[in-house]
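Before the break, one more example. Copy the sequence into your notebook; we will annotate it together after we see the structure.
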Amino acid sequence: MKTKLMAARRAATFVHALLIFSLLLFPVIGQSASKATRFIERSTPVEKTGPTESSRLIVEASLQTPRDFIEHAASEEVDIHDLYFELRPYEGTKTCLMCHEKEGAEMLDSGHFKWEGKTDNIVGLEGEIHGKNDLINNFCIANATNEQRCTQCHAGYGYRDASFDFTDPTNIDCLVCHDQSGTYKKDPKLAGLPVPSVDLDAVARSIRIGVEPTRKACIGCHAKAGGGDNVKHGDISTDLIATTREYDVHMGVDGADLTCVACHGANHDPKNGKVNHGIAGMPLHSANEGEMKQCSDCHGGRDGIHSGTSVEPLFAEGYHDRLACQVCHIPAIARKISTKVEWYWSDAGQNIDPIPVDPDTGRPTYDKKKGTFVWKNDVRPTLRYANGMWDRKVVLANDKYDQEPISLGNPVGSYEDPNAMIYPFKLMIGNQPVDPVTKTVLVPHLFGKASGPNPYWGNYNWTDALIDGAAYTGQDFSGEHKFGDTTMLLSVNHEIAPAENALGMGSNCGDCHSNDVIDWEALGWTDNPMAGGERILNVPAQSISSPSAE
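Here is what the structure looks like once it is written out:
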């Protein structure tokens, strides 16, 4: 008994000396001792005896370099992120770069981070560098001068104005894409920084090697484009985070339950299968990034998939050879959460009380900062021929106009173009500030003072806000402005309905040919071909300004 007691005392003395030595030689480790104990207790529950405690301290003291952590995580069969961030605090992107320097360099060159890239698909601007940084739209108009607000959806930290350093990898926000906890959230006014209440250590621990970004990570930003849920494209809402197949067969939790990257894949190295950070899906710039799945990659050819079904007769004689899959399989968008289809900036700045609310969608139809809106559910997409090229308005590059309504975004193609097929689009109409003298579609300074002293959302003075915008962007502003009518088409690819709800089921031609929802003239017909319409010879350039398109 005496011998055992002396042995225990010697063990206790050894542990005590080792602990003091660790605290002196490894102060950081000493500060993390309680965390280390909690992690090891959770991962390898064993009886707490003297020798076991000492071995734990030895293990903790041995974990100094990233390689140490990687090897220990492998030996213990735990994820490196869970191990490391239990023992060390998350100290920003520099922590990630200790192991992921190569990935950081890849991200710096990605469209998601740069918000621009080689514009292979904008007519007249091929080979130039453009993107979200200088594109003009008829929602919040432009990123320029408003970065501090827009960049709440940037995959980086601190993009407040044009001085942002796109070459510094520590400005990358790794957590916004790789969070698996579902708790990460950016502050809407802090240029991409997270809200202070987020437990960054918990988010960092949640990351898993080989686990794809969640739908919430992607949709959290993409659904809010344009300033609100499902505002912009109309087919990407927060409902898709955990929807049912009724609203999207691919993302429905009772359907395929696919993540976004199942279709919007990253580039794979053909030799080793490793991926980089080029994500597919940007149709205007950076179009060669990533590996974008097409319908046929999973479903096979059109004739095979429809053979023996009730729609097989619709493809006889080549009647619908030019229809993209989305035309029939997206019969409507905004089926769960409404989308904005009209936006009139000319009404902004008024003190209206109470704020009017749309009775059907329950969403406000007025905002002093933004003007008047029209919301809709179950929006039937507008059909146009498209060959992959676009006409888009870009700050300084082609921001002039010569007629109204001004087309800010329009797919290129016609039935005479063998490379074009009919695709569905969301049509957005509205008005926004333009210069009637210089014929320029103007970019107003809306938010924050990082890019000028007079944001419109601060003093509600359009002239001052437009002066700020012109000074920042270099646009040609005469000092006069009016509100020009604008139109824009946006691609539609989500909210794929179940097959039984697709247009044409049962060979029902009436889904398209017995109503006035199709702009036949824009598709190259004088009228509905089943009502005697004929092909138009020498089809003019595709336009979205015809009344039937609205």
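Residues 2-88 form one domain. Residues 36 and 87 are 5 Å apart (CA to CA). Try to locate both features in your own notes.
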